[in-house]
Design goal:
Layout (H helix, E strand, L loop, with lengths): L1 H32 L4 H6 L11 H6 L3 H33 L6 H7 L8 H12 L4 H5 L11 H26 L3 H9 L4 H8 L1 H21 L2 H6 L6 H7 L4 H16 L2 H8 L25 H29 L10 H6 L3 H32 L4 H16 L2 H12 L15 H27 L2 H8 L4 H29 L3 H6 L7 H11 L1 H28 L1
Helix pairs in contact: 1-14, 1-18, 1-19, 1-20, 4-5, 4-8, 4-11, 6-8, 6-16, 8-11, 9-10, 11-14, 11-15, 13-14, 14-20, 16-26, 18-21, 18-23, 19-21, 20-21, 21-23, 22-23, 23-26, 25-26
Length: 553
Amino acid sequence: MLLRRSIPALLLAALLFAYIVYPVLAMLSEALTLPVSEYRAEAMGWNVNAQPFAAPLRRIFAEPNAIASALRTIEIALATVLASCAWGTALALLWQRRDFPGRCFFAALGYAPILMPPLVGTLAFFRLLGEGGLLWRWLPFGDGQPWIGGFGQVLLMHTYAFGIFSFAYVSAALEDIDPSQEEAARSLGAAQLRAFFTAVWPVIRPPLLASAFITFMSAVASFSAPYILDNSSHYLTVDILNEAGDLGMQRAFSVVLAAIALSALPAFLYINRRGRFGADMGIGMKGSARKSLPPASGAGVSIRVLLSIVVAIVLLAPLSLVVAGATTTPNGSSQSVFHSISNLDASDWVSLGRSGQYAMAAALTDILLALAIALSLRKASAAAVFSVEFSVMLALALPGSALAVSISSVFNGPSFLSAGVPLGRTATILIIAYAIRNLPLAVRPARATLQAVGADLENAAGSLGARRARVLWQITLPLIFPSLLAAALICFITAAGEYVASVLLYGVATKPVSVAVYELFRSAPERAYALALCLMLASATVIGAARMVRKNK
């Protein structure tokens, strides 16, 4: 009976293995069997036509730049974890501990970075901190030269972009804290700091650790920030792109990058199993009621409002810089946003529409798969559950560049997974990459919500004679619709702005908007910022429309 109930889950596990695990194994196989370029083989003293087993991996550990690239990647990831966790936790404590005027508005601004795809955020920070950046021109010292190096600029960009993980995870934990517990500790004579570490810290520590590990994996996978802000240093994600002419080395770099990112996955899964952290990170669409917060004191109100205004300026600054970049002409004069957008040519609009279509197809695929996974795993065996969860978590931890390389290893040529049709440089391979990359963002909230609503209503309907299809359509789907909608939004926004996988997989006829933005940035910056602004406005419009749909449900 258990085996029969596990059949849907096992079929899904086979599907996920074929499209996620198998490409990773194919990439590893090529890293072990492909040759390296002639000059690298000669430098190692190998016969060019008879190179040893695992030649690319052997060459990586003998190449100083490759070792420096791996160390630099780990260094920026660890620094990002410290900075992002501190920033996100500070924001959560500022807005989720005491009530004060405007608190809800400021807390909503905490999710502003999600509107900016990584490439767009990087371009905004480049305009502020890069060579000839606005900050250095505004400061009265330094002669307009940057005094924050490339590593520091990448770290600031990462802190802004990835601090949202700690903010969301810790905020969700703080919503479950009863303020009376801390007040009771203080009434017994505990100092304010001691009361915090007694009543609050034990609650926020597990989600903070979970956010630290997911931040580490995200920082390891970061491409656009190192590529643009610190192009004088070596990073694994950048080397993967630069080694496109040496497929063996490209696969080897991808394997090393994947190994570093995957090293954090076991700890993340262990901590995550102890609580549902971040399962409902839905851009403020969760909609659950929370306990009322105690009001801030007189002086505390002024301090919190002042700090919130400063933080709001910081959070909105990159968004403002994109607008400023779009409205500034090459000769330094100003133009309206409407005029800057109207200067975009037909190819720009085509790339934007193309990305919207790809993102919509990928998001729909993710939601359907997430729903099928959530339903099938409820009564499946432990082995079936593990087989599905392993593939989904592998997709979560696998960096975008490594994912793109693994997919190209399988689909660039004829494959049984594509009915023998090569998919290299096609729209299909981009949609596959987007769907795999964002699948965990849909599966986790779908499973968490389905577990939370329980099966009582479904069982009651079944006992009254309702068929399974009717129960699913009239009871289950309406209950989990808000979480599915929030997950679809995140999948759509992430896919629409995806750059690292796109730049490795796109073709002339399938160029997405992220690649078009970067190409325009080098030749016509004002058009690049205008196109990026259109992408952000499209994301905001989709979020607004989804909130209206949810409100009408």
